[in-house]
Amino acid sequence: MMTGIKNLIFDFGGVLINIDRAAWRRAFQQLGIDSIHESVLEDYQQTELYRQLESGNISAAAFRASMRRLTEQPLTDQQINEAWTAMLTDIPSYKLDWLLKLRGQYHIMLLSNTNSIHWQWAVQNRFRYKGHEVDDFFDRIYLSYELHMQKPDVEIFKYVLADSMIEAGETFFIDDSPANCKAAEGLGIHSYCCPSGSDWTFLFKEED
Fold it and tell me: Is 11 designated active site?
């Protein structure tokens, strides 16, 4: 399956780290907030506030200020950060082990639609593993909030290919979004649409 492949691009949420999409609602409820503005609470990925945060068009501080306005609560930065990161659960250790193993065979990249609050938390709490740090798992890391671009915009894939100086036909992309995979495939990148939280390591076990 990986014949001719030299580069692997991994998504973060759903592919590496498991996501509990209802957890942040519960976390805010535990702070005594029974309802946040409906457009934010019901489908956080589709809200303008969330898109602005993930695209890096607003800062974490501006996001927290908006959350205080929406909740009408004098929440601390720590309370907001802890509630906001509650949706991030675990990265299964076998996936971290496989990333380390695969890095010896491929050029490994991370490409994620994420925000500074989530990413900084993950770096501190989920990529410290067996003495390793986040940079031990990837050759390059591409984050939407730093690039001011988001998947499935084809421009973010063009940027990754150009910045890494890699060929689309030699690259394999693993993501849990069909739209993201389709965008990558439009440039000639091979892809696998991974059901969120599932095991993708079978793709490489034939090489083991």
Answer: yes
